[in-house]
Every structure is written in C-alpha cells, then in structure tokens.
Amino acid sequence: MLKELIITELIKLRKSYFVFFLLGFNILSVLIGSVIFSANREVFKNDGNQSLVLWGQGSLYSSQLFFPMLIGVLCAVSWQFEEKDRNWQRMSIIPVKKNMLVLAKFFSIQIFTGMNQLLFLALFNLSAFVLRVPDIQVWNFTLWCFLGWIGTFSITAIQMFFSIRLRNFSFSILLSAVGAILGLMTLFVGDFLFNIFPYSQIAVGMRARTLTNFSVQEFILFCVMSVLFSVFALFLSVKLLNNRED
Predict the structure, then answer these.
(1) Which is higher by pLDDT, 187 or 17?
(2) Disulfide-capable partner of 172 in 7, 84, 140, 163 (CB 3.0 to 4.6 Å)?
(3) Helical residues (DSSP H) of the chain, grouped into ranges
C-alpha cells in the first residue's frame, strides 16, 4: 500500500515540474557562494583549505536559507493536490489509512530533497573545477550532503503539518521562510540553539558553519533532534487528519 501511494505522489509532484525549481535554487546557491569565494580568494590563496571555504560559502546559503523555503513550497504543493477541487472529501471515502497518506507524502518529498542534495554536490564540484580549487575533499562533501539530507527530515515533517493544518498554500510557505530566517539568526545567538533548531538541521548536517566532521556528541544530538522533530510532527499530522471532518 505504502509503495503504491509513494509512486502516486511522485507522479503528482513530477507533473509540477519541481525539478526545475531544484536546479534553479541550487545554481543560485552555488553561484552566490562562488562569487563570494572569488571576491575574497586572495585572502586565503596560500591556505590549504580553499575547498572548505568554497563549501562553506555555497552550502550556507543553500542549507540555511533557500532549501528550507524550497521544502516549504514542496510540502504546500503536495498537500494542495488534496485540497484542490475538494479532492480530500473523495479521498476520505477511500480505504486509505491517514498515516499511510502522510508517510507517502513525506517519503516522496524526501526523494526530491535527496535529488536536491545530489544536484548541489554536482554543481559544487563543477564550480570547484571551474575555479581551479585544489584538494577537493570529495568523500567528506559527499558525506555532508547525505547528512544534510537527513537534516531535511525534520523540516519536511514540520512543513507537512503546517500545510495540512493551515490548508493555505501561501501562508505555509511564508512559515517556511520565517523558519529559515530564524534559523539564520541562530547563527548569531549561539551554537547550542543553532544545533537544536529544526530549520538549522540541514546546515548542521552539511557542516556549513563548522566545516569539520561531527564529534560523537554532535552526531548523537543531530540524530536525536532529527528523529524527535520528524516523529512528533508526523504524529501531529496523522492526528489532525484523523480528527478532520471537512
């Protein structure tokens, strides 16, 4: 049942041509990071960590600002398929469990967020090649992209709840923008708040701020935050649907 629902959701999202949005946002993120890197390259031209600096510039804008908002748009689009033309009422008479519907939407969106990370990694490597940045840490950056994908789980779950609860396309997207901006502000408040804030989890996973691998304690905290936010938000979404009558 779940597999069929996921396939159905992927077909719906594919028809929205969302891949082009993913490509556009990633090109913008990498371009901004590359421009800032190039403008300041003389400062660290003799530094052996140029690839880390380039990664930090590109991944920060992607993970902390653009990507959370993009997830908000994706969740809003996914749920609006059910609100459009009162499709929700028709679905309510079909023997589909509410938890299966929520999970199908969640996992289908995670496939798109995984595609986003692959696009970002490919464009980052392309920019590093064009800029002739030495000593690209390919395995590290690949791992960080994967961990950044894990960080998207909590944002997807929260934004899915907002989309179902508010049933308003624009307002749920606005909340993702607010969350992204608040996450950016936590950078100036302190490491602990930054590490536990749900909309910062992509940046935490991609190591956009520290540019170092996780310590054991940091990794445990990251996993705990991702699981807690994801499970709690998905639970609320299912509960909301079970109590919904219109």
Answers:
(1) 187
(2) 163
(3) 2-14, 18-39, 50-61, 67-83, 87-92, 98-130, 138-166, 169-185, 191-196, 201-205, 216-242
